[in-house]
Amino acid sequence: MLSAVGWFVLAYFFIIFAVAVGAVLLLIKVYNDRVKDKEEEKYKNIKK
Questions:
Q1: Is the pLDDT of residue 3 over 90?
Q2: Which of 12, 21, 31, 36 has a CA-to-CA distance to 2 between 20 and 30 Å?
Q3: CA–CA separation, 31 vs 27, rounded Å?
């Protein structure tokens, strides 16, 4: 059985971990969107 402080530390680390994972996923999504936009621009330029 964990003490109150133990639970608090556990919750604190869990929140930090969740925020870090969310930030990484967001960065990956933004990066993929940018790469996709560049690919589409290349394709449009080729079509002209």
A1: yes
A2: 21
A3: 6
Of residues 2 and 28, the one with the higher pLDDT is 28
Q: What's the chain's average pLDDT?
A: 91
pTM: 0.59
Q: How far is CA 23 from CA 18, 41, 47, in A?
A: 9, 27, 36
Query: What's the 3-state SS for 12-48?
Result: HHHHHHHHHHHHHHHHHHHHHHHHHHHHHHHHHHHHC
Higher pLDDT, 23 or 41: 23
Largest CA distance in the chain: 68
SS3 8: helix
